[in-house]
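README: folding subset

This subset contains proteins for which both the sequence and a predicted structure token string are available. Records are stored as plain text. Below is the entry for TetR/AcrR family transcriptional regulator (215 residues), shown exactly as it appears on disk.
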Amino acid sequence: MARVSQEHLDARRRQILDGAALCFARNGFHATSMQDVLKEVDLSAGAVYRYFSGKEELIGAIVAEVLGSVREAFEEVVHQSPPPPPDELVASVLGKTLAARESLVVDGRPAFPRLVIQVWTETLRSEELALILREGYGSVRAAWGEIVEGYQRAGMMRADVTPDHVARTMIACVLGFIAQQSLFGPAPVEVLQDGLRALTTMRAEGTAAGGSQLG
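--- output ---
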């Protein structure tokens, strides 16, 4: 019997994850059955269950993959001195995250933002998924915290600001932007980048030139 290559196994796993993500974004997690997933990916039950035991494992794998890629993107710049300004960094990471899933489309609109909302809703019911999400966001927060420390060492940010507070704020901005896309339609990441740049270069009235700012 011919041995299946790792490349083939990886491609099949990718096919299943993308098909499941599309189903979840289109119909919601609970309204999607495994039969829906099998039909979407045009594979037998045996082929799919070889990789995933059911819907819970599928959505957990999707969430872990997305958060892992985001964490890795931030960790790549942790040791840059100084790290890129927040607006550039957020636009770069979010742009790559959305571009990697641009083929997932529902009713002519990107499906990824809708999928994010579905995941948030499901975490209220599934403690297992909530744990995956907490661990993933924890690692992203930690990476952001290190980046903030880099800003502080470079004199780009006040030293008396708690790095984790900035990390939580930046993550909140990104999540809010994704939620807006789900509710109101697509928007280019440049919208978020421009807004962050404007906010982080504000100066309080009377602040001397050269005062502390983000970038």
